[in-house]
Amino acid sequence: KKAEEPKKGGPAEPAKGIEKWQAEATLDFKELCYGNYVLSPCKLFVELMNGVATLKGPNLGFAEGTLDLKSVCDLKIPGYDYTLSLLGTNISCMAVSKAAMPKGDTYISGTAGLNLQAQGRGTDSEAIKKDLTAQFKMDVRDGELKNIKILNALANVLHYSRLSDLPFRDFDMSASLTNGVLAIDESEVTSAVVGVRIEGTIDMDKNIDMAISLTLTAQAVKEIVLSMAPKSVLKDDDEPGKTYPLPPIVVTGTLENPQILGPENVFKSLTKTLGDHWEMFLDVVPTDKVKENVQKGIEKLGGVIQGGDKNSDASQKADQLIKEGKNLLKGLFKK
Predict the structure, then answer these.
(1) Which residues, including other chains, have CB under 8 Å from residue 249's CB and lie 6 or more apart?
(2) 97-143 pLDDT, tens digit each
(3) DSSP per-residue string spanning 165-205
(4) Among positive and negative, which fits the CA dihedral 13, 15, 17, 22?
């Protein structure tokens, strides 16, 4: 009888007698490179005792900041159980972005702190998907989000180009990894003109399912109005700090090709927000006649939103909605 072929890709078997081995080593590198990422200086301490290997790397130089690394791997268990702890301080997000995409114009800048805690078994993709779990937190200060494709898609729908090049004060994110799916539990960007909150998931194939909530400042609202009705005459903000939240916007597709779910509904939410607060931005006090005409315009827009012509298809309704919305905005904000 022909002998069976050994299974490929199975968990690595522990070395015989590994629990009796003992060893210590210090590895001192001037530079340790992985692709475009560089650790410098890099001094690692390795210990093997009772079949358990421990790797420590305190104060590793990385991206203009430091990393503290600790990993423990139980070599007695087939497939090797391991834990990983990674703490980052004063990390340059720009340096990391340029290492990840040296020829691209997409980046995140700012100074970051990060905390990664992971547990798993095995190193091939199937084992990672099945057994790796992780928790991740990051806080970035005084940076910029440049040409992020999800934000670019929102910028196109909302007629607000600033989302494609967004300076921020704070960018905080917490996420967890289970069964090969990264869940963004909370991600919040705070800038001078708009707040962005993101929740959702990303799988190993970069498929996304997210809900994004935007909070507009008065300045953001004015910029959106002027982008669609350039001749608008707007007054100065008489309520500093007042904000205008939009309902959550659903984004699907992939990281490379994000899709806004129901763009006409996003435009509807934006126009309703402007319609609800239009008196805040007029340069002159409206007469009763102006108010009456504006109310009629809002009601007309509402009819388009609720369905419009039943014989028109979805794309015609969306085009009609955007056209009516722009006309309404021009009527609202022009003298």
Answers:
(1) 154, 211, 212, 213, 214, 260, 261, 266, 269
(2) 999 888 888 999 999 999 999 999 877 777 777 889 999 999 999 99
(3) EEEEEEEEEEEEEETTEEEEEEEEEE-SSEEEEEEEEEETT
(4) negative
